[in-house]
Amino acid sequence: MYRFNVGGQAISPKDDSGFYRLWTDDSPYIFGGSRVTYSKDNNVTIRYTPVVPKYIAPLDVYGTARSMGPTTQVNLNYNLTWILPVDVGFIYLLRFHLCEIQSPITKENKRTFYIYINNQTAQWATDVISLSGGLGKTSYRDYVIMASGSGQVDMWIALHPDISTKPRYVDAILNGLEVFKLQGHELNNLAGLKPPLQQKPDVEPKSVAGGARMSKSGLLVAIGGGFALMLIAIFSMCVICRRKKVGKSCCKTNNGHLNHPACDIVRQFSFSQIQIATNDFDEELIIGRGGFGNVYIGEIDGGTKVAVKQLNQESQQGSHEFQAEIEMLCNFRHGHLVSLIGYCQDSNEMILVYDYMVHGTLREHLYNTRNSPLSWRRRLEICIGAARGLHYLHTGTEKGIIHRDVKTSTILLDERFMAKVSDFGLSKAFPAIDNTHVSTAVKGTFGYFDPEYFLLRRLTKKSDVYSFRVMLFEILCARPVINTELPDEQVSLRDWALYCQERGVLEEIVDPCVKDEITPECFRIFAELAEKCVADRSIDRPTMDDVLQNLEVALRLQDNNNCVGRPSSLQIIGMHSDKPLTHSIISAAAQGEIFSDIMHLEGR
């Protein structure tokens, strides 16, 4: 269900250690900023052990990590947290991959930390050196949890320094994380694994000489988890082999070759296939129109809904934007970037095929629409999702990518209203890592332009920040960024919003549909962020990481006022490790001792 190379970039199936698994970037699921990521020191060699063979995970997973950072006081005041939406009614296996890769940490008790799963202490005093046996040696830990209730819930996974043993470094790390959906917990073969929450003695592992005694239920969990992993691996191999056959020649077209080395992960469609998928481009199937051309809803593979974007031959956008979008979406995969399924470059046509986004564009839910208005909380969640996607483009790639066309019509919403950044035809990569800006012709959408970019042709990552903030005003006020039908002082939403804010009356132009929902604390954070993001000089604007963290704080303040103390619906029911477990608690007693600064634990 989830497989993350924590702190590192995505690992393609061909680079996996034998099972053709796709390891993705974890940053879309981080609560707050991205914190500190790093790779192994040059003098460190990653080594598998007899209990952690090569097929468990590739070396690249263990060769990168995410930690809390070097500041002791800061680390003691927050948790390094991931939030993963899961379906209730299922049992989940969680596998934590751990490996110390920094040469200062060579002995036990250099760094120890808690592992929390959904407000429960899964383990304290986690010492990776003790688990693995030394610097650069691999290890992992398995936990099994049960999600009860209805619909979907968020699984909260968090790490926090454990200073009870007085370690040298006050920090926590993680190298990789896998989450597997095993089966519904109502089925008989695993139904007996869930212990009552009132039990205490039975849920603590008993220590014996040389290790800990695994209970009967723990043994069943380990066997069941291992069997599930084997089935998943076999299934993954079959799927990847089939996809390789389908996409073997996808880089080659009738008109030449496309320059994107990762294009084997998307399909090449013939024009006749696209015609069938769209009922010969039936106008009744048009779901959008833009600078590129029309967007149709179609069906492939016996019923899978897709969005088909066809280039209008009279459009100003052409083959350059077409290839740029393919290269972008082939090379970068992220939970908050729209997924490219394939393309067609046949019969002088240029067509892109994407995952179908059920709820269309964000703009379609704000104004001039028959759709029901979005709640304020949902708007915040969408803002955070879009910010995560842009943050990944800015920092999660080797040189950094500038989107250049951030607006409400390029933010798509899936069936759960999760935001997906789209339309990468105008995106620009930095030519070198140390470049602070790119000099280029002005492209984008009027009303969202960064003044520095528009006047000086100086494009920076802060140009996206400016456009993003204009979009936030649009979300707050539910009106177009440029409206020539209004009085002169109100034509530009950005200028009008800043004018109102300077006079302390910004709340008067807030969308009436959400005005009464916004808590004062949340509104204050949102308003303060506004002025910084739309500063005329890029140097005075925050980074996308800063924007993301402020939006996360705004959401927490909104939730703290409305939803304090909701109980968790996820329970740990078992665990397994490649090493004996000597510091674990699996009980509800730990609820409330972590996430002390996070009061709302459901549906983020």
Automatic annotation (TrEMBL):
<dbReference type="InterPro" id="IPR011009">
    <property type="entry name" value="Kinase-like_dom_sf"/>
</dbReference>
<dbReference type="GO" id="GO:0004714">
    <property type="term" value="F:transmembrane receptor protein tyrosine kinase activity"/>
</dbReference>
<dbReference type="GO" id="GO:0009506">
    <property type="term" value="C:plasmodesma"/>
</dbReference>
<keyword id="KW-0472">Membrane</keyword>
<protein>
    <recommendedName>
        <fullName>Protein kinase domain-containing protein</fullName>
    </recommendedName>
</protein>
<dbReference type="Pfam" id="PF12819">
    <property type="entry name" value="Malectin_like"/>
</dbReference>
<dbReference type="InterPro" id="IPR017441">
    <property type="entry name" value="Protein_kinase_ATP_BS"/>
</dbReference>
<dbReference type="InterPro" id="IPR024788">
    <property type="entry name" value="Malectin-like_Carb-bd_dom"/>
</dbReference>
<dbReference type="Pfam" id="PF07714">
    <property type="entry name" value="PK_Tyr_Ser-Thr"/>
</dbReference>
<keyword id="KW-0808">Transferase</keyword>
<keyword id="KW-0723">Serine/threonine-protein kinase</keyword>
<dbReference type="InterPro" id="IPR045272">
    <property type="entry name" value="ANXUR1/2-like"/>
</dbReference>
<dbReference type="GO" id="GO:0005524">
    <property type="term" value="F:ATP binding"/>
</dbReference>
<keyword id="KW-0325">Glycoprotein</keyword>
<dbReference type="InterPro" id="IPR000719">
    <property type="entry name" value="Prot_kinase_dom"/>
</dbReference>
<keyword id="KW-0732">Signal</keyword>
<dbReference type="InterPro" id="IPR001245">
    <property type="entry name" value="Ser-Thr/Tyr_kinase_cat_dom"/>
</dbReference>
<dbReference type="GO" id="GO:0005886">
    <property type="term" value="C:plasma membrane"/>
</dbReference>
<keyword id="KW-1133">Transmembrane helix</keyword>
<keyword id="KW-0067">ATP-binding</keyword>
<feature type="transmembrane region" description="Helical">
    <location>
        <begin position="219"/>
        <end position="240"/>
    </location>
</feature>
<keyword id="KW-0812">Transmembrane</keyword>
<dbReference type="GO" id="GO:0004674">
    <property type="term" value="F:protein serine/threonine kinase activity"/>
</dbReference>
<keyword id="KW-0547">Nucleotide-binding</keyword>
<feature type="domain" description="Protein kinase">
    <location>
        <begin position="281"/>
        <end position="555"/>
    </location>
</feature>
<feature type="binding site">
    <location>
        <position position="309"/>
    </location>
    <ligand>
        <name>ATP</name>
    </ligand>
</feature>
<keyword id="KW-0418">Kinase</keyword>
